[in-house]
Design brief:
By secondary structure, the protein is of the alpha+beta class. It contains three helices and five strands. It is 23% helix and 40% strand.
Length: 136
């Protein structure tokens, strides 16, 4: 189901909780909502649709990946960039890592590990910031 995008900075600034298998529908809602906003959005966190759970979705070019309870396990190559956010107006400077490794659970609740670099790595870091209540 397509959900409305949350723009309340107080809500977005709150830390999310661990997701459980009960959150699988939230993952599907993220898929639908990203599809509805695809022309100006490449990723989302569950709190952006009003759910404080550790769930994100990231567009990887030809596919979207939903990550439940993502954890950054490795990072390399700090650099400064600028980002915008569907939940906020404007562009802000932010530090990101060029290469990262993330562990997460997929829809079958199987632990996955993925290495990312460049743009996909930046998107994942942005969405993971949402989970910790960090709003750029």
């Amino acid at each position: 189901m397509v959900k409305q995008i949350v723009r309340d900075v107080f809500f977005l600034g709150q830390k999310s909780e661990l997701a459980t298998r009960d959150g699988l529908q939230v993952g599907r809602d993220l898929q639908d909502t990203l599809n509805a906003n695809r022309e100006h959005c490449v990723g989302m966190a569950a709190n952006m649709i009003g759910v404080k759970k550790n769930i994100i979705i990231v567009n990887m070019g030809i596919i979207d990946i939903v990550m439940f309870n993502p954890v950054l396990v490795a990072k390399r190559g700090l650099y400064e960039t600028k980002e915008g956010c569907l939940s906020l107006d404007g562009i802000r400077k932010i530090d990101r890592y060029k290469e990262i490794e993330v562990e997460y659970f997929n829809f079958n609740w199987i632990k996955q590990k993925i290495k990312l670099k460049d743009w996909p790595a930046q998107i994942v870091q942005h969405e993971m910031d949402h989970l910790s209540g960090r709003v750029i």
